[in-house]
Amino acid sequence: MRGNYESAGPLTSLFPDPVAKVLDQSLIVGNMEQTTSMLAESTGLTFKTVKKVVEKLVERGFMAPTRKIGNAQAYKFNVENDLHELIEWATKYQFSRDLS
Length: 100
Fold this sequence. Notes:
Strand 2 (63-69) and strand 3 (72-77) form a beta hairpin. Helices cover 60% and strands 15% of the residues. By secondary structure, it is α+β, with helices and mostly antiparallel strands. Strands 1-3-2 form a 3-stranded antiparallel β-sheet. It has helices at 5-8, 10-14, 18-29, 36-43, 47-59, 82-99; strands at residues 34-35, 63-69, 72-77.
C-alpha cells in the first residue's frame, strides 16, 4: 500500500471519505470493541465525524453497540456480514492496482 494505512486502506483508496476510513479499521481490529474516541484516533478523523459515521454504520448493520466502557459506548464491526466480502474485494483491487 502507498502511504500509511490511515490514508491508503483498501476502501479509502477507492472511496476517499470518512465512512471508508472507519470501515478500513475493521481489517485491523476485526471484532474487537472500539469506542468513537479510539476510532477517531486511529483514523485521524474528528470525534464528531466518527460519531456520525458510526451512527450510519450501526443503522446499516455494519457495526453494533456492545457495552459502555466508562462513559463511552463501545462498538464492534460486524465482519461476518457483507462487509467482509466488500473489504476483501477492495483489498484485492488495491493490490492489483499497486502492482501495475
